[in-house]
Amino acid sequence: MSRLSVSTSTHRRAFTLVELLVVIALIGVLVGLLLPAVQAAREAARRMSCSNNLKQIGLAMHMYMDIHKGLPPNGIYAWNGTSMTTRNAWSAMARILPQIEQESLFRGINFSQGYNAQPGISTKRVSTFMCPSEVNDVGYGTDATYGHKHWPINYVINSGTWGVLTDKANTMKVGDGAFGPNQSYNSHAFLDGLSNTLAVAEVKTMTHRINGAADTTTFATPLAPPTDLTSLSLGTFNKTNYTHVEWVDGKTYHTGFTTTFPPNHKLLYNDSGVDYDVDVVLAKESSIGDTYNAITSRSHHTGGVNTLFMDGSVHFISDSIRLETWRALGTRGNREVITEF
Predict the structure, then answer these.
(1) pLDDT digits (tens, 9 = 90+) for 27-56
(2) Strand, helix or coil for residue 188
(3) CB 224 within 8 A of CB 295
(4) How far apart are CA 76 and CA 91, in angstroms?
(5) Distances from the Cα of 335 to the Cαs of 162, 257, 309, 322, 325, in angstroms?
(6) pLDDT digits (tens, 9 = 90+) for 207-229
(7) Which residue spans within the chain are E strands per DSSP?
(8) Is 195:311 a contact under the CB 8 Å cutoff?
(9) Which pLDDT tens digit goes with each residue over 57-88?
């Protein structure tokens, strides 16, 4: 009796080219659907980290107030009869370093000397001062030893509406914001209430800056806040002049903002057919003449900017906020009643 041997073979069917292309197309669609969600999640995380930086700065400001009975001044200047002189150019942010766990960096500062003579300080990156969404988180300027000369900053103090330093020959009147040169305000100065007054807001580093026609400009009467650039006498545009590239510097265009324009407002200056979003400086703190600044709060977050209020609370302010409300939030003593923002 013979045994029949039966052999069986299994034939595996391979993918066809069409099927492979369909699979690749489906993967592409899924990636396309997921990528915006991943990017949104990353930006949400960066925005929360940004908010936490502001909360830390808020705590530091209040700790400084408890110790020194007032807020840190943003630079100290004096009128000597013929010109404005700089007595201490260090910023308010430099003065709160011990309160943000930067005690060793603070102890390295010689406040009797200018920051330009201390590149070992000015070149340092302070992580609490930088938003994780900032695209220009890099050193600025040139130094033979350190490579760069300064490090930028994303969180700056509220210098008020427009005029930063006026009435030079008499009372050295400063702006109507929460901070100012020569000033160390305590809580009693905030007649609007701490919860209704901006303390710090976001800015973009390396924002183009255009100055007034001359640093020695004087103004017979206080200038009204501008609505655009056409009413201002401007000097030559230099594409290498920026704002917010020196966290050590007490000048408003480096460590301050004004509420002249609402958040993320585009103030466009055309140079050789190219539009540049600019900040404006009319005169300078260290020069003869009054100082007016249109330094706009800007951020890399969609729809608005993160802000710190004087009571320590952090709020995301929409680009669509009414200009009147934004300016009211920027003043410390006008007794405005603000119901929503």
Answers:
(1) 888 877 776 766 666 777 888 999 999 999
(2) helix
(3) no
(4) 9
(5) 18, 21, 16, 18, 13
(6) 999 998 876 666 777 889 999 99
(7) 76-79, 84-88, 155-158, 163-166, 173-174, 198-202, 207-211, 242-243, 256-257, 268-271, 274-282, 291-294, 304-309, 314-318
(8) yes
(9) 999 999 999 999 999 999 888 777 766 778 89
